[in-house]
Amino acid sequence: MKLASSENIRFIDKEIEYKHNTPSIVLMENAGRSIAEKMTQLFSKQSKICVLVGSGNNGGDGLVVARHLLNNGCQKVHVVICSTSLSKDGQTNYDILKTYRDVEIYTIKTLEKAKKILWSSEVIIDSLLGIGVNKEVTGIYAEIIDLINQKKDAKVISVDIPSGLKACGSLSKWPTVKADHTITLEFPKENMLIYPHKKVVGKLHVVDIGIPKMVRDRVRPSSYQVTANFVKKLLPKHREDSHKGDYGTGIVLGGNTNMAGAVKLSSLAAVRMGIGVLHTIVPNEIKNTVQNYMPENITWAIDYSKSRSSLNDTAKVLTKSDAMALGMGMGTKSNDQFFEKLILSYKKPLVVDGDGLNLLSKLPKGVIKSNWVLTPHPKEMSRLTGLEVSDIVENPVEVCKHYSKQFNCTLVLKGASTVICSPKGIAFINTSGNKSLSKGGSGDVLTGVILSLICAGATPLAAAISGVYIHGLSSDLLLESQNYRGILPSDVANHLPKAINSITQ
Ligand SMILES: NC(=O)C1=CN([C@@H]2O[C@H](COP(=O)(O)OP(=O)(O)OC[C@H]3O[C@@H](n4cnc5c(N)ncnc54)[C@H](O)[C@@H]3O)[C@@H](O)[C@H]2O)[C@@H](O)CC1
Ligand SMILES: Nc1ncnc2c1ncn2[C@@H]1O[C@H](COP(=O)(O)OP(=O)(O)O)[C@@H](O)[C@H]1O
Ligand SMILES: [K+]
User: In terms of CATH architecture, what is 228-234+244-504?
Assistant: First the structure.
């Protein structure tokens, strides 16, 4: 699903106004009416309602909402104009509204008056600032936003976007409305789906405001939400008359003396996702435990400190493989030469995770190839880029877009909302998954999932997008019947077939 930036919305408004001869006030009317209709499902008509109106078109929408709430039978509507000026369409809607009988309109001069109205309201409709927020929120807006956030016993519903939140880009450091519901127009905005911004959005609703399909189709966003339907289309098809060769030969390479679990989990996930043949390559010390973990994989032993002989011993397997997942639990001691030689010689798609990323961060980024998928969490991303972790988690989409282009590869920036970016910097935001995944080993499962999808024929980007979604979905399905605390990464791996069924059937 397309996610809109402020520029995308401006593009739509221009197309409608100039190519389709539609005055902007028509869209404002559609928006306000659709929002008011949605609102009637969210509170009773008897509620005491306060509509807070700002200077731009978001405020104009609020004035249309107030009128349609009255038309729909709400009787206790107070409108508070929080600015000395209104937009042109906002002014027109103010002139219409002031002819109505059952509405009280105040233009606030002092905060005291606004406070009194707010304090006695059961529903607060926030139409102070929309996607036009372009500077620090200070003064009267900041004070009103603080008041809204202090009032815990009212339902706060934001029009289009919580006031103060930016549609895209880094976390705003200024007061922002914390909404219970956000009713957004036509397309969700990028930041609404991603933590930490997502925390202020509440329940997200998207309403149709009558933008013609031909205009919607012309919108070219730089980010998309990953949906089940999209993933269904990306999944490699499996045939009844297939054989194991159709689903590829993959390699999981990693592990160390005290870290056999990571490769076990990646391997388990790869076979649960349907890989044709799996070879697991690990240090000799852990070969037996990895082999005994599951009968489906073929296990090979190596010694990281002897890169030449290790690469020679596994040369045949490496050459025959379709893709490799590399680095899980590998450690970073005495294996940098092995790692460098391996990645320079391996030409097939590579999924680099965990210590593989830590080893990669010490090398020039020119070694990265366009058929690679890197799967860092914020700390690993910090090592790869030199950015502070806080800069990454406060602006994950922009960071991921920038570095996927710079590294020229598929980048999976993991977190509570994972961002996947193509080498051209197009972002795909995942919303499946839950806090049951916040455990050591969850990322190893994801790596195996992505590997398996590449081996079955998906492009690295398609495998990353669908892998992240299915991995999260598997944990969501488990959460339906059990508490998040006890859901294990291996449970998530074992549940992958159910997750696939829920998409494909
Ligand atoms: N296609 C769409 O999506 C449509 C969107 N509409 C509405 O239009 C809104 C966008 O309208 P605008 O572009 O007028 O933007 P806003 O309503 O967000 O208001 C921007 C105004 O506020 C001022 N401003 C920005 N940041 C400020 C700050 N920190 N403190 C004080 N003032 C600040 C700006 O100078 C400008 O005058 C959308 O959010 C939506 O509600 C609808 O009216 C019609 C169609
Ligand atoms: N709260 C959460 N909601 C959704 N997904 C989460 C959450 N916490 C963690 N995850 C997911 O779990 C995985 C954790 O990966 P990672 O930190 O690399 O773990 P490890 O290296 O221990 O395997 C990532 O895919 C991440 O997106
Ligand atoms: K708003």
Answer: 3-Layer(aba) Sandwich (3.40)
